[in-house]
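Whether sequence alone determines local backbone shape is best considered at the level of individual chains. When preparing material for the folding task, we compiled for one chain both its residues and its backbone structure tokens. The sequence in question and its structure tokens are set out directly beneath this paragraph.
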Amino acid sequence: MTAATLINVTANAILAASALHLVFRVFGHPDSAIWKKPWAAVLCKAATTVTVCGALWNVLTLSTPAPSETCLNIGVSLNFIWISYYLKNDSSTRTRDSKPASTLPRRNASRRAANPRKRKASSSTRRD
């Protein structure tokens, strides 16, 4: 096994594992936001399924592709690692019973309430 094959197999194994993690993270619970858009759910499932199948195929066949494809495989696997890391850390800070960000009070809400802006009269209500 050459060094290029080993690098490619490692990148594809990482890619398959992190893509599977993404699938379980996104589709793992029924109240996921992805279920609100069925076309996005189908597209995401199809894309990650093809990605996992292609990565596992490269691992099982021990392929040695061109250096540009190896570079691409490394980049895609690093991208999927970053996505998995972000989703894991982002969702682990919230519980299922916590409020969504849109219902939380705004940071400057008290300042806005203390100093409401004056509205200008529209041109149709002004009298010259």
Q: What stands out?
A: The two ends are 88 Å apart (CA to CA).
